[in-house]
Each structure stands twice: as structure tokens, then as C-alpha cells.
Amino acid sequence: MKAFETYEPGHIAAEDQTETVSVCITAYNIESYIRKGIESVLAQTYKNLEIIIVDDGSTDSSSVIIDEYAAEDDRIKAIHKENGGIFTARNACLDAVTGSYICWLDGDDSMDPEMIESMLAALKSTGSDMCVCRYRQVFADHVKDASTDSAYVYEGRQLLEQFLKEDERFLIQNAVWNKLYKAELSDGLRFPAMWYEDMVYTFYLLDRSKKSVYLDRAYYDYICDRASSQTNAGINPHTYTDLIPNLFDRSEYLESIGRHDLALISDYLLYKRLLIYYTKVSRSDDPDKQEHLRILDEHIRGGEDRFEEIFTCPIANPNEYRKMKIYLRSPAGYLRTMQINDRFIVPLKVKMAASLKCK
């Protein structure tokens, strides 16, 4: 990895904007948001765009709005289909792509005017096949944005490794919408028929990238407060049928390509997540609580013979292994320990950190 403390992506002159970028947008019942999203794409400083908008059977006025914009700008391809779920809408976008590069916009979000030009310029200047950028987290009453002027160039699977570590300093994420990449990277790659479809697609997309650049500057506004968003659904039945099995599949794939080191990182964060889920479900009013706790317990205990290696991988926190050992002895004891931790220890740490910050 090569790091740049300050990095300016540069510009692409109008006469040099010869390659088409396909902007893929999916929409379903987002009439209150879709205009802002489309207009943010039309305002891009990079003009050679193919804008593909797939309406996944909206029952509100989203489809009418999309057709209005398509009638005004011949760069827009409006596709209307029966509702089939977001993975079908995303795949319909991919099927319509003819550009050399692909980027995404969720129809309820928006992008800065210079997003595509800056990301493509960075991709080209570094000889990369993918560019990833930071994004703003937009809430009803505030915006979170930790942007800097830094950039990082990754070779081979270094970006995939950074992604797997879930380091909050780098907002790589499972999402497709903060990435611009060569269309050839997605040849034969489709979104699976499941919830969390983007985490599968993105994982394999990152795996295919031979060189990539990460811009630690936010060009994308991600709306966090929309209650109907799949991302904001929290723990739900699909967590057990789609999310957790996919995370296990991810580790198996990493082992199959000879990256045991990355598989350990993936497994560490997986089992850490399972313990968090167990705590949350035990405290919830989930009507199927006992069944879901049983499933989580089964997954957790299934990896017990490998925990010593998993919980001593390079990114592991020793405290997580201690939690796991308590759980294996007694799930009830683990829950009591977490209750004490959350009620007394965590507030104390927060108070101490605040007092140190004031000095």
C-alpha cells in the first residue's frame, strides 16, 4: 500500500471525457427522494454518462418521475419492471450497461457534482481498475463526515484485506455506491437472490481488483434515517438465512484461494459479530428469540476447536477471546458479564476518556 497525506485527483477536460461511465440507479417507492438523486447525477462535471434507472415496480409516483427525466435527457435509460427485489433491479442495471466504467447510486441518496470526474481521474492517474471514496452519513439532525485529503493505493488483494479488517478509518464497506470501477471487473458477476446482495457482489468485485485507489474524501451522501431501508433493518430473519451463511461462505472462499491469513481475519470478525448478535437478541422482544439464540449458539460452538488461532490473529483484541471463553462456559454467565460491562464499565471508560480529553 502507498499512502498520500494530501492528494488531489485532478480534472478531466471536456474534450478528454471520451469514455462512457454507466451510472446505475435502482428505485422502489422513493418519490420523495428520487428527484434529488437523479439531479445529482445530471449535475456531474463528467458529462459522458449513461444513466440507467431501474424502477422495480414502484406503486407510488417514482416511475412517473423517472420517465419525466428520461424524456428531458437522452443519456437516461428508464427501465420499468415488476417488483422482484433489489437484487433483480441491480442485475437489470448490469444487463443494460454499455459503458467502460460503472458506478452506482441508490435512488434515495445523492452524489457531489465532482464525484465521477474525481474518482475516474484518480483511477486513471494511479493506473487502477477501481476507485473507492469516503461518504457522508446523513441523519435527520446531523451529518457525519470525517473526510481528509489523503489517499491510498493498493496492489493486488490489499484493498480486500483492508475491507475485511473493518477498520472504521476506511469507509470501504459492503455497498456498491461509493465505488467506480472498470466494467470488465464485473464480467459474469451478478447480485445473488438474497438480502445483503451487495455484500456478496462487492466482496468478489474487490477480490478481482488488481490495483485500486481509496480517496478519503466524501463525495456521496448516504441517507441513514429512512426507516424502510433494507440496510437499516437491524437483526431480522434474513440475518440467519442470508447474512450469517454468506459470512461463512466468505471465509471458505478465502481458504480456497490460499489466503488463510485473510480467512482468519474474516472468521475473527464473524465470531465477534455472532456474540454481539447473541447479546442483542437475548435483550430483544423477538418472538422467535429462543430459536434464534439456538441458531447463534450452534454457529458459535461450531468453531470452538479453531478459536485459539482465530482469536489470536493480528487484528484480534484479547478481550474478545475472554468474552468467548466466558460464553463457552456459560451463555447465561456471558450475558450477565455483558450486562455489568454495559451498565458500569463502558460508562466509566467514556467518562475517563472525556476527562482526559479536557486536560
Estimate the strand proportion: 15-25%
Low-confidence stretches: none
Could you give the count of β-strands?
11
Largest beta-sheet details: 11 strands, mixed
List the helices and strands and how they pair.
Layout: E1 2-4, E2 21-27, H1 34-42, E3 49-56, H2 62-72, E4 76-81, H3 86-96, E5 101-106, E6 110-111, H4 115-126, E7 130-138, E8 143-144, E9 151-155, H5 158-164, E10 179-182, H6 197-208, E11 211-223, H7 237-256, H8 260-282, H9 289-302, H10 307-310, H11 318-329, H12 331-358
Parallel strand pairs: 2-3, 2-5, 3-4, 7-11
Antiparallel strand pairs: 1-9, 5-10, 6-11, 7-8, 7-10, 9-11
Can you characterise this structure?
The chain is an alpha/beta fold. It contains 12 helices and 11 strands. It is globular, with a radius of gyration of 22 Å.
Quick take:
The chain has 359 residues and is an alpha/beta fold. It has 12 helices and 11 strands. Strands 1, 2, 3, 4, 5, 6, 7, 8, 9, 10 and 11 form an 11-stranded mixed β-sheet that branches.
List keywords for this structure.
359 residues; alpha/beta; 2 domains; 12 helices; 11 strands
